[in-house]
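Protocol step 4 of 6: structure prediction from sequence.
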Amino acid sequence: MADDSANQIPPTDEINSMSINSQNDEGSSTSTPQMSVEEKFRLVRSIGEECIQEDELLNLLTKKPQPICYDGFEPSGRMHIAQGVMKAISVNKLTSAGCKVKIWVADWFAQLNNKMGGDLKKIQTVGRYLIEIWIAVGMRTERVEFLWSSEEINARADEYWPLVMDIARRNKLPRIMRCCQIMGRSEQDELTAAQILYPCMQCADIFFLKADICQLGMDQRKVNVLAREYCDDIKRKNKPIILSHHMLPGLQQGQEKMSKSDPSSAIYMEDEEAEVNVKIKKAYCPPKIVEGNPCLEYIKYIIFPWDKKFVVERSEANGGNKTFENYEELVADYEEGNLHPGDLKPSLSKAINKILQPVRNHFNKNANAQDLLKRVKGYRVTR
């Protein structure tokens, strides 16, 4: 777990709320030659809900000008706002800090996990659709590589499969089964042999891609820890640093995680304005209650990092318009009852629609993107 010693450098509000749209006067992406090691640390660290280990991250950024950061995804259906916007924000922070980001398009993994019924062509279509969205929403790709697992593994099979076999050989079956959460499964599920192989392969990916940092969700933590344990087994000194981001909940009460298969739990990246308005209007948002409130989580993890502020528009009778400069200020007003869900929800819908409009524009104007979306919408999502 992260060490909380006094010599660590806490993230500043400025870095925590760094806008995805930060650009210089020429419109190019943020340049960072003048960024100190401490500033890079704060920026990279601000992505993670947890970091294992912070001293290793600081040391890495001190010694390596362009660390390699690994992120990955299963192409398994339409993209929701957490996967779309939060990943774009995180990737832009990493590249602004000088990192090179390798995004692993895990098409073989989706097939192993029976996504899209195991149809690899459909899975790859979904993968192309997801990349279209990230670029449309504003992910800066100058230091980003999209790597397809099927292509990369086939090209370097002599390097990949001995690594998978060695990881499998050094771990007992119960240890591997404890990693099933990474596939959206539990140890109690009836797993196929393919799904048992999956964690060993994902662990191997980290070394295969020569990753210094694993930047994945908290739900992927167990296999990242497995990679660090493997380093102990093989007496490798430099372990991958785990930077696990927060998992945004679904919109309904008690939904710990968004579900692509439940449209009511998530906002999709190409949802129309009216669809966003309806979903937010129906979302769980009890007055004065912050804990477990998905609307407030959207504001904290999407709106503030994107816009650095949250604007509430309301009548003079209800207090008039107000601009919140930080999340703590908003929470204080909400808990006191000075900000009502009836005013918060329309303002949240407006902020989300502003973020999603460039994606809608792209999918309305680009024929290739339109075709991809039409095909993906026609696929049946399988678990």
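Step 5 (inspection) to follow. DSSP finds 16 helices and eight strands in the chain.
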